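Narrative summary of target 7.
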Amino acid sequence: MIPHSASEHTPARQANYSAPSPARQSSPTPVTADAPSTDTPSQDQLQRYLSVLGEYIRQAREHAQTLHDSYTNEVYELWHEHITYSAAADEASIASGTLSAAELEELTRKWVRLMREGRDMLRHETTIAADRAIVQDGFPLN
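Modeled conformation, tokenized:
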């Protein structure tokens, strides 16, 4: 049965998890097309898109991997699979070099959203684990 909320999970290796450093949590500056009238990105725009998009994909993968490794939960298993396959497909599209500026911008929006969702799930689980530890320390069940 799939839990109805992220808080209904079985912790796996929570003690091994440490939150990403603040520097790694910051989001890269979003890239927008300098010349919206043209649909073909310049080489400079393309490099900026690829750099920023790569960072969003990396962060989304990192959050998904941490959730997958730290919590036994079917939802996080599926999230990890989704991020893994989406990243591979989108990176192949990017590598093809055929995407327009609008398509690159849309991919950037997609990965900003996925990165934020993963980050928020991870923060939620970390908060639950910390609250649980406080309760257990304050009220031993033995």
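DSSP finds four helices and two strands in the chain.
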